[in-house]
Amino acid sequence: MNSNKINKVSKFVNITISLVLAIFLILLTNRIISDIGNWNVAPNYPNAESVSTELITKQNILRDSLFTLHEEKSRFKKLIQKTAEDYKAEKESFETWVAARKSIGLASEDTAIRKRANALDELHKVKKSWEQEVDKVQTQINAINNENNLINDKIKAEKQLAFEVYEEEMHSFNLRIFMIRFGIMIPILLLGVFFFFKFRNHKYWPIFLGYIIFSVYSFFVGVVPYFPAYGGYVRYTIGILLCIVVGKYSIDWLKNYIARRKEEIEKAAKSPKKDRFKNVDLAEKALKNHNCPSCGKDFLNLKWTNQSESKVNTDGTATDFCRYCGTQLFAPCQKCDHVNFVHLPFCVSCGDNIGEQNQVAT
Questions:
Q1: Measured between alpha carbons, how far is 178 from 194 in angstroms, rounded to an integer?
Q2: Alpha-carbon gap, residue 113 to 98, rounded angstroms
C-alpha cells in the first residue's frame, strides 16, 4: 500500500472516529436535555379547582332551580294546549247545537244555551289562568338567568386571574429549565472551543474533533426544540461572538501560514539538494498535481497553436525549473540518464538513490 492509500485510509478512519463519537455524544446529551423538564414539577393548568367553591355551589343550585322551573313551565304549556283543544271542541259542539236549536224555537230564551255558553267561558278563563302561571314561571326563569350570568362573570374573572398566575408560574418554570439547559450546554461549547485552539496537532485529534462537532451541533442545533423563544437571542449572540473569535484566529493563522510558506520558499531556493527529500508525501502530491513543492504553483509550460486566427492550448510540458521561484524540478539520473522529479528519493527507471547522487553532486 503506497503513501496515498495510507493517507486516504487514515483520513477515513479519523473522520469515522470523529463522527461516531459525535453522534453518540449528541444522542446522550439530547436524552439528558429532554429529561431535564421532568426534574421539576410544571404548574397545573387552571381548572374547576381555581374557582371558589361558593360560586360553584350557588351555580349548581341555580341550575337545579332552572331545571325545575322549565319542567313546570312545560307542564303549564301542556295544560294550556289541552284546555285550548277542549275549548275548540266544546265551541264547535256548541255552535252545532245552537244551529239545531234555531229550527225548533228561540235560542235566546233557552237556558240550556246559556249554560253551555257559560261552560265555554269557564274553559277560556282556565286557559288564561294557565297562561298567567306560565308568565310567572318565565319571570322567575329570567331572574335566575340574570343571577346565573352574574355568577358566570365572576367565575370567568376568577379563571382569568388563575390563568394569569399560571402564565407567570409557567414563565418562571420555563426560565428555570432554560437556565439549567443553558448552564449545561455553555461549558460543553466552551470546552469544544478550547479543544479547537489547543489540540489541533494532538495525536488524538480525531477524538477532540468528534467532541468539537458534538459541542457545536448540540448548542446550535440539537437543543433548539428545548429552548424557549428568547433562547434564540442567546444562541445567535454566542454564535456571533464565536464567529468573531474563530474568524480572528483563522485570519491570524492564515497570515502566519503565508509568512511561513514564503520563508520556506526562500530557504528551499538556498538549501542544498539533499534537503529536498524531507517530505516525500508532499513531493508525490506536488508531482501528481504538477505543482512546485516550494511555491505551490503549476510548473507545466503550455504550448499554443494558431487555429482560425486564434491561439488554442494543445499541450503542456514540464519545465526543469519553476518559473516562479527558480526551484529545480526535474533532472536526469546520473546512472541511467532517465529524467526524474528531483524531490523524490529514487529513480523510477533504475531505482538508484537520487538523494545520494545529489549529495555527491553537492
A1: 24
A2: 7
Q: Which residues on adjacent β-strands are paired with residue 304?
A: 313
Long-range contacts of 343-348 (CB under 8 A, 24+ apart): 343/276, 343/277, 343/283, 343/286, 343/287, 343/293, 344/277, 344/280, 344/283, 344/284, 344/287, 345/277, 345/280
Q: Which cell numbers hold the place of 298?
A: 503549476
Q: Kindly give the parts of the chain with pLDDT less than 50.
A: 1, 107, 273-274, 276-277, 310-314, 359-362
The pTM score is 0.45
- Per the CB < 8 A criterion, the answer to whether 233 and 203 are in contact is no
Sign of CA pseudo-dihedral 198, 203, 206, 208? negative
**Roughly what angle, to the nearest 10 degrees, separates helices 231-270 and 111-198?**
20
* pLDDT, position 357: 56
Residue ranges per structural domain of the chain: 1-228, 230-270, 273-361
Sign, CA torsion 116/122/125/131: negative
The string of pLDDT tens digits covering residues 236-249 is 787 888 888 888 88
Q: Is the torsion defined by CA of 138, 144, 150, 154 positive or negative?
A: negative
Check: CB of residue 166 under 8 Å from CB of residue 122. no
